[in-house]
């Protein structure tokens, strides 16, 4: 039976499932193409070949190669955030919660060095659109830090301090990528958690939160 033989509602549902599958395959195709050639040398032909879909299918989802990269960045960042938040145990002290969450987040990033490079290097080549989506993701991570670091009487950090922490951790990860240490991000757990704890303890203690 084909979509032509199905009732209108079922055909529409099948079409939606197919579109979703093609979208996921295009993101995977972009990931593979980036790993092989880098963003600057990757073409739409490379993406559709890796995704095993038509060029027409590509343009049904994205207007440009940059749009596809932005979508990949958002999808991968969403997965990383799910891992980050999922590692939190609210029954533990916030210091322990932070350490577990940072460990899970860095482990997730280290699983795919090519994707990690996309998230921390290639996205910067898109100019303002890349910076905007990166800032959005950083704000979400900063929001996690704000929620996790709670002092006595419910005192919290300021959003500015939380974003400062995110920037510091991002620089540690970027340095690891540049030095080709992407698969060994566990070594960043200690400095990253120390940074969060130091900023949080000082911020909560001096009443800036």
Order of helices and strands: HHHHHHHHH
Based on DSSP secondary structure assignment, what is the total number of beta strands? 0
Output the radius of gyration: 20 Å
Helix share, percent: over 70%
Q: Spans with pLDDT under 50 lasting ≥5 residues?
A: none
Beta percentage is: under 5%
| Largest sheet entry | none
What number is the mean pLDDT?
Answer: 85
What is the CA-CA span between the terminal residues? 62 Å
Which outline best applies?
elongated
State the helix count. 9
Class from helix and strand fractions: mainly alpha
Describe, in plain words, how this protein is organized in 3D.
The protein is mainly alpha-helical and 209 residues long. The protein is 72% helix and 0% strand. It has 9 helices and no strands. The radius of gyration is 20 Å and the shape is elongated.
Helix and strand arrangement:
Blueprint: H1 8-37, H2 44-51, H3 55-61, H4 65-86, H5 94-110, H6 113-120, H7 128-148, H8 159-178, H9 189-205
Helix pairs in contact: 1-2, 1-4, 4-5, 4-7, 5-9, 6-8, 7-8, 8-9
Brief rundown of the structure:
The chain is mainly α and 209 residues long. Helices cover 72% and strands 0% of the residues. The longest helix is centred in the N-terminal third of the chain and has 30 residues, at 8-37.
């Amino acid at each position: 039976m084909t979509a032509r033989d199905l009732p209108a509602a079922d055909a529409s549902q099948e079409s939606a499932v197919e579109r979703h599958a093609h979208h996921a395959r295009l993101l995977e195709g972009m990931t593979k193409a980036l790993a092989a050639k880098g963003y600057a040398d990757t073409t739409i032909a490379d993406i559709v070949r890796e995704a095993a879909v038509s060029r027409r299918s590509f343009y049904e989802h994205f207007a440009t190669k940059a749009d596809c990269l932005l979508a990949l960045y958002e999808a991968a960042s969403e997965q990383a955030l799910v891992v980050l938040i999922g590692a939190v145990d609210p029954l533990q002290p916030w210091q322990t919660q932070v350490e577990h969450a940072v460990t899970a987040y860095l482990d997730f990033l280290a699983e795919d060095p090519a994707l990690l490079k996309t998230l921390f290097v290639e996205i910067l080549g898109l100019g303002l659109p890349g910076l905007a989506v990166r800032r959005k993701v950083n704000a979400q991570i900063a929001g996690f830090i704000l929620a996790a670091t709670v002092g006595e009487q419910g005192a919290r950090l300021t959003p500015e301090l939380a974003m400062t922490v995110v920037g510091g951790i991002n620089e540690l990860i970027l340095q690891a990528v540049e030095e080709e240490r992407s698969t060994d991000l566990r070594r960043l757990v200690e400095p990253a958690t120390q940074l969060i704890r130091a900023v949080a303890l000082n911020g909560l203690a001096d009443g800036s939160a």
